[in-house]
Amino acid sequence: MDQEIDYNVNFFRPTTELSRINRNLIIVLILVWAIAIFGFQILLRVMEKPTPEASLITFEKVWDNVKSGTASEGEKIEFTNSVISVLGKSSTFSDTSGKSVLHNAFSWAVYDLLPEENRKSFKEEIAAFEGQRENVTSLTDNSYVTAKSSIIRQVAGILGLKEYSLEAKLIPLELRSAHMETFTAENKEKLPDVMSLYLTHNQSILTDTVFLGFPFHYFYTAVFLLVLFVFLCWIYCFLIDRLHSRLEKNDENAKS
Q: Which of 37, 69, 105, 225 is the most exposed place for a label (fewest CB within 10 A)?
C-alpha cells in the first residue's frame, strides 16, 4: 500500500531544510523592515525637541499686555500678525473651536487698531462681505474682488503688510463681524494653548538635516524605505535562488 503523503505546510514548524531556511529568511527580512520603520520613528521621538516658531515667540512677548489691555499699538500689531500666521495654517486645524478662538482674537484686534470713527462702517462692510462670500459663485466676480480688495487696503497698511502678500489676502477671509467688539474671557484663556499647538514643532538633527534637497526624515520615509523594501525583496529572491541551486546539487550528488 502506497505511503500517504502529507501536503500540509506549517510556516512555524517546517518539515524540510528548504522550508526551515525560507522561514528564517522571511523572519529576518521582516525584522529588518520593522526596525527600519519603527526604529526610526522611535529615534525621532527620542531626539525631538519642541521648537517654537518666531510668531509664537512674538505672541508670548506681547500677550500679557494685550490680555491686560495695556499693549501699545506696536504690540497690538505684532499680536495681530502672529494670530493671522496661525490662521494661514487652516488645513492643519483638527477642530473648529480652535479656529473660532483665533477668529475672535484676530477680528477683535483688527477692530481695535482701526480709527474709532471708521469702526462702525468697517464692521458693516465685513458683515456684507461675509454674506457675499457665502453666496459668491465665482472668485473672479467683480463685486466680490472689489469688496475683498477694499478690506485688504484698509487693514494691510495698519498691520504693516504688503497688499499682495499672503497674509494680506487672508484678512477678508478670516475677519468675523460678530467677533469684533469683544474678545471673550473664555477665548482669552484658550488662545495661548491654540497658538502653542500650531506654532510649536518637534525638531532634531534628523528633521533639520537636508539630504539630496530634502529634509532627512522626509527622504528616509518617502524614498529610502521604498528603496529598502525593493532591495529586501531582491535579497529574498537572490538567496532563495541560491538555496534552490545548492539543494538541487546536493540531491544530485546524493543520487550519484
A: 69
